[in-house]
Amino acid sequence: MAEASIGPMNKSNFLPPVTVALTGASGAQYGLRLIEALIAAGHEVWVMVSKAAHLVIETETDASLPARPERLAQALSERSGAAEGQIRCFGREDWMAPVASGSGAPSAMVICPCSTGTLSAVATGASNNLIERAADVALKERRQLILVPRETPLSAIHLEHMLNLARLGAVVLPAAPGFYHRPTTVDDLVDFIVARILNQLGIEHRLMPRWGE
Ligand SMILES: Cc1cc2nc3c(=O)[nH]c(=O)nc-3n(C[C@H](O)[C@H](O)[C@H](O)COP(=O)(O)O)c2cc1C
């Protein structure tokens, strides 16, 4: 009889997967740059892109990403220089995807950018699509969940949902770059936020110096 293994499974050549969900808030560049940075750091990246996010990506960037998950993974891989199999994408209602269950989901998920719609759905446990379900799984499993909302001004509804999420252990990291590093390009502003996300994830980077360096 084969000996049962109780050790960790190591099925991938990459560092552990991080889930990245892009939703329909302005700031698609933050999410796309985050994927690039995670790929450069050697992580596997599991990606979900909402329908509204596709529209925002087309509006705000020169990228036009296909909707079908396999083709999306290919396009994102080409964009970010990912190795074969380093990026996996999941569709809106792919309930069989590993992120849909606590037994398969990675230890960290970032929703970047995060629309107020998705933020409220996560805060109330709606789980109406795979992004919302994956975030719900992250909360119930007490895994790392980072939301990067972009909206201004914020209503009491938004603020209450953010407070509830913070109390549940999620990190609310608004897409609000600082200016004390004297940014000169849009890329500098984008990297400011992506660096903050990587800091939260405990991933080394050289996107910008840390305070005091
Ligand atoms: C170009 C564009 C920019 C948008 N910017 C924002 C935004 O900054 N913040 C936000 O919460 N919603 C924004 N929206 C609205 C959301 O996309 C919309 O509420 C959508 O239903 C969100 O769906 P999702 O959470 O499934 O991606 C924007 C929509 C478009 C088309």
* SSE ordering: EHEHHEEHHEHEH
Bound molecules: flavin mononucleotide
Order of strands in the sheet with most strands:
3-2-1-4-5-6
Q: Major sheet: size, sense and barrel closure?
A: 6 strands, parallel
Strand percentage, roughly?
15-25%
The gross shape turns out to be globular
Residue-averaged pLDDT, rounded? 95
Q: Number of helical runs?
A: 7
Question: What structural class results from the helix and strand content?
Answer: alpha/beta
- How far apart the termini lie comes to 57 Å
Radius of gyration: 17 Å
Q: What fraction, in percent, of the residue positions are helical?
A: 25-40%
Tally of strands: 6
Low-confidence stretches: none
What order do the helices and strands come in, and which of them pair?
Layout: E1 15-22, H1 28-40, E2 43-49, H2 51-60, H3 69-80, E3 87-89, E4 108-114, H4 116-124, H5 130-140, E5 144-149, H6 156-167, E6 171-172, H7 186-201
Parallel strand pairs: 1-2, 1-4, 2-3, 4-5, 5-6
Helix pairs in contact: 1-7, 4-6
Bound molecules: flavin mononucleotide.
Flavin mononucleotide binds at residues 23-26, 50, 52-53, 55-56, 59, 115-118, 150-151.
